[in-house]
Amino acid sequence: MSQLAQFARKPWSRLASTANQLFRRIARPACSKLVTGTLADLPRSRAQLLAENALLAQQMVVLHRQVATLPLTRRDRLSLLFRARLVPN
Question: How many whole angstroms from its chain centre is CA 70?
């Protein structure tokens, strides 16, 4: 490999590495601890927690059933819509 090609690859390699590190830092999920999550849920009512759990369970049902080309059915959309209205966040 010529010196010119090596010289050109170094900045691109560093740029790609820096971009990758930045993306990983931005896309990293917020660290959620059991204690802080529990404390955040304390002021919420039981009905709100149950509604959120029902919404998440429905999302999991759809996710497991879904094929890459299969869209959500009307029933799925309505179910998610009504359950999402019960969840404040």
Answer: 20
Q: Rg for the chain (alpha carbons), in Å?
A: 23
Q: Rounded to whole angstroms, how far apart are CA atoms 75 and 81?
A: 10
The Cα-based distances of 19 to 6, 14, 26, 27, 59 in angstroms read 20, 8, 10, 12, 32
Structural element, H or E, at residue 64: helix 46-65
3-class DSSP state of 43: coil
Flag whether the pTM goes above 0.85.
Answer: no
More confident residue, 40 or 75: 75
Which token pair is 87?
Answer: 């969840």
Task: Report phi then psi at 16, rounded to 5.
Answer: -65, -40
The CA-CA-CA angle for residues 37, 40, 43, to 5°, reads: 140
